[in-house]
Amino acid sequence: MSNLKQMILEHGKVYPGNILKVDSFLNHQIDPHVIKSIENDFYQYFKDKGVTKVLTIESSGIAPALMVAYRLDVPMLFAKKALPSTIKSEDKYETLVHSYTKNTTSNVFISKEYLNKDDKVLIIDDFLANGEAAYGLADLIEQSGAETVGIGICIEKSFQPGRERLEDSGHDVYSICRIKSLDDGKIEFYE
Length: 191
Hints:
Elements: H1 3-11, E1 13-15, E2 19-21, H2 32-46, E3 53-57, H3 62-72, E4 76-79, E5 92-99, E6 104-111, E7 120-128, H4 132-144, E8 147-157, H5 162-168, E9 173-181, E10 188-189
Parallel strand pairs: 3-4, 3-7, 7-8, 8-9
Antiparallel strand pairs: 1-2, 5-6, 9-10
Protein name: Xanthine phosphoribosyltransferase
Binding site for xanthine: 20, 27, 157
Binding site for 5-phospho-alpha-D-ribose 1-diphosphate: 129-133
């Protein structure tokens, strides 16, 4: 059993609306041992894809994305939700992303300076539900002319349409933990 799966079973909390709270070890307080095991799983799966950049969205995907980028020896880039004064509107790629957990839609962007047509980009994120974040990041990559070589997800809610949507678009999706159900407050995994 993976370290991440064990932590989900021991510390994950299920809330109404199919929300899985894992902020005690993954996306608020971060357990470095969990992140290290996540990094290793993603590295083993994606190491031969020719990755030149790792991309995530702020803020929950940053910790695993940074560790994977470090292991692959490439830069990590994250899509921002607020435009700083140092980036002009014509110097960015931009898309809309809806958050399932927060039920909000954000305008996210990355600077054109850090992504170009020669890049082979690995997307890393903490959760996959409806696929909005990963799909939005893939859109930013497409705008730049770069190639999405894979999508790595820490926790996938397989009972929601995200994986199917991404795979139907031709993406290679690898999830460390695939959750089959959160019915009755119980966490049930595939496998």
